[in-house]
Amino acid sequence: MKRLFIAGLSAITILPLAANATDDISSLPLVSEVAPGAIQISPHVPHMGEHWAVPANLPGGPIYCVIEGRVVCVEYMFDQADLAEGMSWTRLDTGIETPPITHIDVEFMPDGIEPHPVPLYQLHIYFADRAVLEGH
């Protein structure tokens, strides 16, 4: 299954990573401009900020991680069962013109995330440097 997941996300390795990490979030897009219909779906999460999404896009995403009104990352969620069945996700829409990417995290959540309590993987595509995120 890990091979399937890694193969399914291999396209991510070709995404351009920022040569110089974003050390200031003020240049990042505002969630109010990116997704005017988005609602806050979680309180502040350390190093990610609040999570916002357009309800029709849940649970898969895009979900926006927001600090001080700015989108610092875009998140997608993939159910483990869907991966095991060989499901593909192509042309995922971020909903924004993507700022330079500083890093990408893929995390397994065995208990899921409320209100979607099934084993899943989270894909976070960050536009802010880790050091900046650690301050939030």
TrEMBL record:
Keywords tagged on the record: Signal
Keyword Signal: yes
Domain of life: Bacteria
Signal sequence coordinates: 1-21
Designated name of the protein: Uncharacterized protein
Originating species: Pelagibacterium lentulum
